[in-house]
Amino acid sequence: CRYEHAGAWIALMKRIAEPRMVVSDGGTGFAKALKKVWPIAKHQRCIFHVFCQIKRYTTSKPNTLAGVELYCLAKDLLKIKEKQEAETWVTRFTEWIKKYQEFLREMTVDEHGNKRPTHERLLKAERSLLKLIKENTLFTYLDKEFINDFIAPSTNNRIEGGINSRLREMLRNHRGLSIERRIKAVYWWCYMHSPEPLSLSEIIKTMPTDRSIAAIYQRMNDKSRLEKSLSLWGDAIVWSDLHKMDKSFTEWD
After folding, report:
1. Mean residue pLDDT across the chain
2. Model's pTM, two decimal places?
């Protein structure tokens, strides 16, 4: 989501009863919102999104042996069904780190003369997996408290494929709508596909108006433009850029 942040997640999550476990794709600000609004709920990172993230770093055809083995480890994440298999996977990943630690330490001098890791993308993949393991969010779905009661999901494919993809398809089929009408179309789709939709007369009463939708969009658009216009360190105007200085100058006789 373009405006995805902790505040937006908090506003959404406050309207929903706290679940026992929540599966997320690791969106910006979600972990912070989770601790504040649903402090008891367990967190599971979507295994499929984890796999896709590692695949982006290694590609599907890695050109190093370390990349090939890490990509295979990522694919194996999708097959884990038991706690013992998860522990075995973590052991294999630990052995991968030990095996290639010297390889991953290699440095390269770039065109500006600066040193940087030669295998930077593999290092990013390694760090992302280590972070999930330390947070205990990689195999939450295998916890005993869930296995004994119900089959906990390891991915959020149900909502991605069953709802989000349908919404994207609906918007593709109605290209050319204004932003207000696109938002309203999403509202209507969600209303009509809810388990117990209201009557049309009630939906019309609760449906946001074009004016209210436009106001929300304008407010978010103004905020985005303001954030983009703020100067970062080194971006601000320097006095000397607009004034010529020459300390060696002496007045004419």
Report:
1. 81
2. 0.65
